[in-house]
Amino acid sequence: AALDAGDTHYPPSRGAMPIRQAIADKMRREYGLEMDPATQVLVSPGAKFLLYAALSALLNRGDEVIIFEPYWVSYVPMVIMAGGKPVTVGLNPDDGFRITEAVAEAITPRTKAIMVNSPNNPTGHVISPDEAAIIRDLALKHDLYVISDEIYEKLIYEGEHINLASLPDMVDRTITINGHSKAYAMTGWRLGWAAGPADIISLMAKLQSQTVTSAASFTMAAGAEALNGPQDAVDAMRLAYKARRDFMVPALNAIPGVECHRPAGAFYLMVRFPGLSEDSMEIADILLEKAEIAATPGIAFGRAGEGHVRFSIATAMNELERAVARIEKLLRK
After folding, report:
1. Low-confidence ranges of the chain (pLDDT < 70)
2. Are strands 268-272 and 308-312 parallel, antiparallel or unpaired?
3. Which of 127, 236, 253, 319 could be a cystine partner for 118, CB 3.0 to 4.6 Å?
């Protein structure tokens, strides 16, 4: 409809007001937060740029950013590109990749922010109220910002999503990053958004206006409709991913020499192959060459990911069944 109406011209750099209002309405409806769409919301061609823009807005050269391992592969390069120093904190796979109070040991006088991704890529971990409280307490005690990457928020199978900005006293120090790629399967539309303190959003908007300019006008029209319209399709997709997870995890764990972590969200599996190797690069090579299965080496997500490979289950069930059969055949050899 937007294309038919000729909505193909330059939009406001911060985003068209209908989608900014839709985002503000979502934050109020789902998390009880009052966000001014004019000053506290920014729409961009993808959430990825907004993560970088938030880091660029927050960091002075040499400022440190806490990043939990395993982490999405772009976090560390983004911090470095923004002039900061990534400080990674490894999470224990045998403890379900849970955030513990040990993270406090990584904080120094140069720490400026904590990056949180829940549900997590690659682990599928969903932070609990206790973990959220740890992050909140550290942010308040040490005057830190939190960059909360919530792109997988609608893909949760156990537990509840916690928007960190909605915790007491956190709205003025939390930048929520989200988008349409995962919840609405709009990956090619390139549509992300940020909500946070007006002064930080203003700095991010300045960077956006001088670089990527804006999201596409007709994409934003579709994005507003997605947020405002019925959400039945989102839940149907969540249930489809849950069914794939519920098939894959026990099927892989039933194969001798395979250990699969059970994710609470997102659409990835972190899998060990002690029957093959503890070297994730070697495991990925073996799977590709001998079973024709593509996997991402765990070391790509930091040292805490070593020994694992990441599988995506964002594919048809019959393909997943074929993958299990190939892995079983490989391990029998």
Report:
1. 1-4, 7
2. antiparallel
3. 127
